[in-house]
Amino acid sequence: MQLATRALTVLAGLAISAVSFGALAQTPRDTVVMAKQIDDIISLDPGEAFEASGSEAVANLYDKLLEYDLKDVSKISGTLAQSWSVASDGRTYTFKIKPGLKFHSGNPVTAADAAWSFQRAVILNKSPGFILGQFGFNKDNVKEKIRAVDAQTLVMETDAAYAPTFFYYCLTAAVASVIDSKVAMQHVKGDDFANDWLKTNSAGSGAYRLRSWRANESYTMDANENWVHGAPKNKRVVVRHVPELATQRLLLEKGDVDFARNLSKDQLDGLAGNPSVVLDKGNKGTIYYIGLNQKNPILSKPEVREALKWLVDYEGLAKTVMAGRYEPHQSFLPKGYLGAIDDKPYRLDIDKAKALLAKAGYPNGFSLTMDVRNTAPQTDIAQAVQATWAKAGIKLDLIPADGRQVLTKYRARTHDTTVYAWGPDYPDPHTNAETFAMNPDNADDAKSKTLAWRNAWDIPEMTKAIAAAVKEQDAAKRKAIYEQVQREHQKTSPFIVMFQEIEIAARRKNASGFIIGPSYDNNYYYAIAKN
Q: CB within 8 A of 311, min separation 6: which ones?
């Protein structure tokens, strides 16, 4: 009954908003409409957005200095940058901005805009700020270390010599988006660098400009015909929050949306015989895991952490609710990354888990809570884990909420456990190694708030190993460090890594060109065309 009621509500909403689009059963030729779960969006400010849906939106609104080939990530090319180089000291990087580029406002794209964008990201120090901060930039030195020499020349000085490709890859992350500083500065409140305004507005040069965003409802983008790579093949993109997967499928089959982005195995199987629907697939680096907060004294016991890893039915989940869209994976580096391993040391073993719990002093189990986003597959994973943990005497109470609520609580370290997903920010192993295996400061007010920090895991030695790996110039030695750390991480960490994502976008046959990249901020709309 609840699903049917919700479906009618969503359809009614679409009908109302379709007044300017024509008949409900057919989307306009020049407009792309997607059904997607976007309740995780907190902000559309590039210096703050750090969730999957928000970062996808930012990637379509803003440009960066550099980009990489989605089919061969080893190939880096310039978006706003015409050329880039590093000096013999290994620390001083120089970028030349392409001449003639303009923001959506018509203002020219300059090195000063890039410098201001990076400076504000470091000074604001929101969730993604560490991506730039890890190079020694901080609020006290960033205006000196990141500076525009002239209108076309940007200089960035890091605190040490890193592998140049690592630095370049970090500049392909969403936090390195270049913002129109002239427009943004018109909306500054105090020392917020226009953060409040940029949460719901855009000031970029990307393929689209933001028309509107309504939390838990939709966002709409209009095409930028003067984009650096040429005008998008559509005039407008509308992404609607449709949490129920059955409703997404219904809207797709009726032609009320062009794409359904979150369909599960049941919905995908049900579409198999529909000649009007096509499935597009792309391998993602997104990892699904359970985080165990070490502030909970029960979860801080090594035997308990390991026991919980033996209480997940990885294969069973992979063959049922996760089938077709996820594959078993138990290490923090996704397949395809330097140093990734394919070890799968854990399986469902109730007896082994019980023995570990008894050794930890909990032969009769205990009670925990799990914060979970009230969308699939998170709820499916949580319910399955609740059932298997119960077999060892663990009472797990699920606390469902929308994505923003779960994330806010997770970032505050006030959870017991949570089911969550992490997508790489750039195609270098440090992106995941840093967040899963580094915690320089475990204090509540720490500057670096990695996933290890969120779960209060204090790991000075592992942190040192990962810090050394990112400066290792020998690729073979660097690879070996990541392999060794991952195997230790599998056994000792407060992370139960379970799956790697295979993204599937279901689409109407007449709509094609959606680009599914290896990361959540590599999903692009500009090539979508409808016939």
A: 348, 350, 353, 385, 388, 389, 391, 392, 394
Pairing of strands 208-214, 153-157: unpaired
pLDDT digits (tens, 9 = 90+) for 190-248: 999 999 999 999 999 999 999 999 999 999 999 999 999 999 999 999 999 999 999 99
Map 55-100 to HEC letters. Answer: HHHHHHHCCCCEEECCCCCCCEEECCEEEEEECCCCCEEEEEECCC
Give the distance from CA 239 to its chain's centroid: 17
Find where tokens 């559509």 sit: 234
Beta-bridge partner residues of 94: 85, 155
Where does residue 216 rank: exposed (0-12), middle (13-18), buried (19+ CB within 10 A)? middle
Q: Is 144 exposed, middle or buried (0-12, 13-18, 19+ CB in 10 A)?
A: exposed
Nearest C-alpha neighbor of 426 from the set 39, 66, 62: 66
CB environment 93-118: b (16+ within 10 A), e (fewer): bebbbeeebebbeeebbbbbbbbbbb
- Tokens at 462, concatenated: 């592992």
Query: What is the distance between the alpha carbons of residues 335 and 175, in angstroms, rounded to a whole number?
Result: 24
Task: Tally Cβ neighbours within 10 Å of residue 23.
Answer: 11
From the list 426, 292, 470, 306, the residue with the least C-alpha distance to 368 is 292
Residue 115 CA to residue 118 CA, distance in Å, equals 5
Nearest to 348 by CA among 390, 303, 400: 390
DSSP secondary structure string, 469-523? HTT---HHHHHHHHHHHHHHHHHHSSEEEEEEEEEEEEEETTEE--B--SSGGG-
Q: Determine how β-strand 31-36 pairs with β-strand 259-260.
A: parallel
- Contacts for 351 with CB less than 8 Å, ≥ 6 apart: none
Evaluate whether 12 touches 214 at the Cβ level (below 8 Å).
no
Amino acid at 365: G
SS3 label, residue 306: helix
Give tens-digit pLDDT for 459-505: 999 999 999 998 887 889 999 999 999 999 999 999 999 999 999 99
CA 438-443-449 angle, 5° bins: 45
Among the listed residues 190, 196, 185, the one whose alpha carbon sits nearest the alpha carbon of residue 126:
196
- From first CA to last CA, the distance across the chain in angstroms is 37
Biggest CA–CA distance in the chain, Å, is: 70
Q: Write out the two tokens for 233.
A: 């093949």
d(CA 75, CA 73): 5
Amino acid at 485: V
Q: What is the 8-class DSSP label of residue 5?
A: H
